[in-house]
Amino acid sequence: MAVLSKMPGLSVKVVIKSEAAVEYSSAESEVTGSIAGVASAAGKQGEHLWPRTTTYIESSSGTLFQIEATFGPGFQTAYPEYADRDAICVSAYIDGTWVNCKWLKLNQLRKNEFRTFTISDTYSLSANKEDTVQCLFTFAPVSGVDSATKEKIAEDAKIAKSLGEIRVDIHLAKTTNLGDLRISVKQTGEFALAEKAMKGKAISHGTSFPVTGIASAPKAQMMENWTAIGQFVFRYRSRDALREEMILPPPRSPSPAKPDINTMSISELRTFAQNLLHAQRDSRSVKREIDDRATVSCEGRQYKLVKLESGEEAVDLTED
């Protein structure tokens, strides 16, 4: 799970198949930032940056996922500089699109209790634009297109900028009145992007939002005076893409298989025996006296190592 050093008591994770996704750090793992709103040294131009953490997780096509944020002992519930903010909000963005938000009054967070917010769905309009439907989150594959018009490259570049990214923003806010929740996500994700638009990034997946059924139109708690205090970013990639971006090390080369003498021809056996003898002669770290009873052990059978009248050494290939 991802944590921020400046926000103790808060953790955020992506859950895949009922288990927390394994997170891999990167060069930009955490930007310390500040909550007080002053300029941060991490900002390139001296601008203010909120505390932010960025990690990578592994994604697989067709797999459902959800987001969980847990507030526990140690989380700060009072911010004197933002005294009018009475709520804590967890907002989720997927591929750059806002999908849902969970919130709670600050005075409902108990210092010695854990509270977990789960974001596992969003809402959209049905195909006929008349009904509200509930949608889940599913990883969908991305394919590349070699030839594309300038217009498509420009449009795909906008999509690729935030594709493959789950972002969770933590805000303080002031509650006002209730209103209608309006969300419209692309229910079926089909990602065929121009290769030039991806600019060399190993983007393997986006998110589709499969419909689970018709839902009643949800109401939303309206808020104002939003103040961001932390951000959690999860970039999701296939295992191969994680290796391509050097987040994971390349796979190990398989160990060479042991030679099976039982399947060798006489010619191959002679070559194998000669190579073995040369290797033994060249080895200076191991000293061994060879007599007529010495044997060469290999998988499957054993062969005698004998001395010829000329003084040369040979492997006896005759059957006993």
Automatic annotation (TrEMBL):
Pfam short name (any one): DUF7918
Location of the DUF7918 domain: 9-249
UniProt-recorded name of the protein: DUF7918 domain-containing protein
The organism's taxonomic lineage, starting at the top: Eukaryota, Fungi, Dikarya, Ascomycota, Pezizomycotina
